[in-house]
Every structure is written in C-alpha cells, then in structure tokens.
TrEMBL record:
<dbReference type="Pfam" id="PF22580">
    <property type="entry name" value="KYNU_C"/>
</dbReference>
<dbReference type="InterPro" id="IPR000192">
    <property type="entry name" value="Aminotrans_V_dom"/>
</dbReference>
<dbReference type="InterPro" id="IPR015424">
    <property type="entry name" value="PyrdxlP-dep_Trfase"/>
</dbReference>
<comment type="subunit">
    <text>Homodimer.</text>
</comment>
<feature type="modified residue" description="N6-(pyridoxal phosphate)lysine">
    <location>
        <position position="244"/>
    </location>
</feature>
<comment type="similarity">
    <text>Belongs to the kynureninase family.</text>
</comment>
<keyword id="KW-0378">Hydrolase</keyword>
<comment type="pathway">
    <text>Cofactor biosynthesis; NAD(+) biosynthesis; quinolinate from L-kynurenine: step 2/3.</text>
</comment>
<feature type="binding site">
    <location>
        <position position="105"/>
    </location>
    <ligand>
        <name>pyridoxal 5'-phosphate</name>
    </ligand>
</feature>
<keyword id="KW-0662">Pyridine nucleotide biosynthesis</keyword>
<feature type="binding site">
    <location>
        <begin position="133"/>
        <end position="136"/>
    </location>
    <ligand>
        <name>pyridoxal 5'-phosphate</name>
    </ligand>
</feature>
<feature type="domain" description="Aminotransferase class V">
    <location>
        <begin position="104"/>
        <end position="246"/>
    </location>
</feature>
<comment type="function">
    <text>Catalyzes the cleavage of L-kynurenine (L-Kyn) and L-3-hydroxykynurenine (L-3OHKyn) into anthranilic acid (AA) and 3-hydroxyanthranilic acid (3-OHAA), respectively.</text>
</comment>
<feature type="binding site">
    <location>
        <position position="302"/>
    </location>
    <ligand>
        <name>pyridoxal 5'-phosphate</name>
    </ligand>
</feature>
<feature type="binding site">
    <location>
        <position position="221"/>
    </location>
    <ligand>
        <name>pyridoxal 5'-phosphate</name>
    </ligand>
</feature>
<feature type="binding site">
    <location>
        <position position="243"/>
    </location>
    <ligand>
        <name>pyridoxal 5'-phosphate</name>
    </ligand>
</feature>
<keyword id="KW-0663">Pyridoxal phosphate</keyword>
Amino acid sequence: MTFQNTREFARELDSQDTLNQYQDQFIFPKVNDKRVIYFTGNSLGLQPKRTKAYIDEVMNDWADLAVEGHFYAQKPWWDYQERFAEPLSKIVGALPSEVTVMNTLTVNLHLLMVSFYQPKGKRYKIICEEKAFPSDQYMFQSQVHFHGYKTEDAIVEIKRREGEHNIRLEDVLAKIEEVGDELALVLIGGVNYYTGQVFDIKTITEAGQKAGAKVGWDLAHAAGNIKLELHNWNVDFAAWCSYKYMNSGPGNASGCFVHEKHHNNPDLPRFAGWWGHNKERRFKMEPNFDPVHGADGWQISNLPVLSLAPYLASVEMFAEVGMDTLIKKRDHITSYLEFILHEIDKEVKGNFEIITPSNPSERASQLSVFLHGEGRSLFDYLMKNGVITDWREPNVIRLAPVPLYCSYEDMYDFGQILKKGILGK
C-alpha cells in the first residue's frame, strides 16, 4: 500500500480497521480537554472501560459474602486464577496447564531461576543481552552472588557491534557456542525495551538447549504484543507483566510459563507454598508439599483477587480479538507511523533516526527514535500538546502505536504536532 500523509487518508484507514471500535472501550486521559494520543502502552496500558465491573464484582462479593466468597462468589476466589489458563495459553502459545498468574514479573523470574538456574561445576554462566532492563540486570547480579559467583565471571552480555543499535542473531548464536559447556542459563528479553528489537526466540532457544543450558525469556514487552509459540518452541520457562500491552493496571499480577516437560520432574527445585499444593488436599493441612500439576504448582501464596480482576477483564478482551488480528493491525499501523516520521523528517529538514529494526519480523508495536539535534524540550512540547510518549536518555523517544486503542488518525495528528514542535522553536 502507498501511504499518504493526509487526514483524509488516515481516516480512510480507520474506516477499514476492524479494531477501530475498540478505541471506545478504553478510557483516555485528556490534555487541554482533548483526548490524548497515547504512545506509552509499552509502559502502562490504558484502562479498559469493562475493568471497573470486574473489580466491582469482587468488591460486592466481599461485602456480601466475606470469607464465603472463596467458594460462593460469582467467580469463586478459590480457583479464580484458573480462568486465565485458556485465554493466556492462546496469547503466549502454550498449553493451558503451562501458564499461571501470580506475583509480579521480577519476583516470578527469581522464583523460576530457583528451578532453572542450577550452577554446578564449570557450568555456571548466564547469557543475557547488553543493556537488559535494569531489573533483570539486578536480578542476574543477585542470583549469581547468592550462588557464590562473581558478576564479571558468571554474567556474559551479548553486545551490539560498534556503531549499531541492535544485536545480531549471529552474534547471539556465536556467544552461546563460545561459552559452550560453561553455560547454565540463557535469559533474554523477548523484545528489548529500549530499541524495540524482537529476538528470534525459537532459534536462540534451540541453540541454548543444544549447548546444554536452560533457556528462559522475560516477555515483559512481548506478551500481548508479538506472536508467541512457547510450547512449540520448547522454551523452558518465561514470565511477563500484565500492565503493558495487556492493560491490567499499574504493577499488576505477572504471568508465568513452565513447559510441560518439567511438570513431572520431582527433582526440580522450587520454592513451595500453600497455594501451589494439591488443590484437592489443600485444606487437609498436610506437612509435605505435593505440587499442583502444571505451572500452578509454582504458585506460593493466596492470590490477590482484586489484582487479578482487571487482568481477567483484559485477557477476555484479547480472547475476543485474537492475536492474529492484533498483529495484522500492529504491523500496518507501525508501518504508517514509520512513514509519517519519515515524511515529517523531510518537511522539517530534520535528522530522525529510527533505531528499531525496519524488518517487520524484528519489531512489534514500538518505534524508538533518536531525535538528533533535538532535546528534551521537544518531548516536553509533545506532552503539553497531548502526545503521551516516553523519553529515554540521551535523546530517544519511544512510540508504541498499540493496535487496540491507537488510530491511524492519531498517527497523522502526531506528525502535525511533532512538526509544529520543531518548527516553532
């Protein structure tokens, strides 16, 4: 398709968009009494209008039933998390038994590393990407220290080549082969938070396991955003947050994946808790831990139902739409945003540099843009004029045109506001 930088063309694309109706199912902040253009769904998704009803349901059951809500609520709290198995399995490409919800992202990655990072002898090293999200970096450091290793010995970062913004797949594979039988774990972000680069999860997983290591993924920026086939790709484990592309609310519950090949391994260590114990025997208060079969067996504590309610509202919306439909629009609207950026760059004689890969298979719903020659003042201008975006030092803005609630006309309007912000200085 040949794009045009006109309002009429953008509106025509919106009229053809099967997801355009979902815009009205979200609540948008306002700036100057006008609905914002929201580009930060890669940090915190907008609130779906249906969310309040899910929370109110739990609150009403708590008021009316108190403790009996565990068994007699409209959605009994006792097994509330089981409602996620089917829709989440479709979002991440898993069997229903391989997914669960609990805790928050870094907590779950720590807990999964208890099971899947088992350094022994010379096999103790972890491969991760350079400039992983800071929480992952802190996690790796504390894990290797806990096991008695030094950071500089145990953590191996895959680096970008000089002058390049993204990590080459061949460099990942070469590093795995180089570390070889010293490698215990590969744990990488499925989508790099800074550049928006999508990694080849299938190929990297195969290479890591061939080297004798376990392979896990931090899918914070991937779940609900890219096509995942965790079961078929034979991924050992993964975790993700729910508040970015899945719109469950700030700091909300995390999802976990544990491949079924690990479900019946009694020798696999894990930190156990009451909620992961055999569901049918839980109230017998037995002294010895008998885990629930599947990913639910990694649960520890009674689940925060009030937090799960918004997440359930969201995954049921995803079930209505389907990942294939989301991804089709994601690719198209991201390409249109890319076109708008290039057009405005020409009009203002600027020097924008999109550091996200141009290959659609290596990117998702994010474009990270170096604003060469521009400073923080341009970001501030965008924010004051109703474009909610994200600034990363030294001068990068991250733009996430989330397909559920961003429109093509939003992309056009953003371009016009961006142009005024540059020319008006």
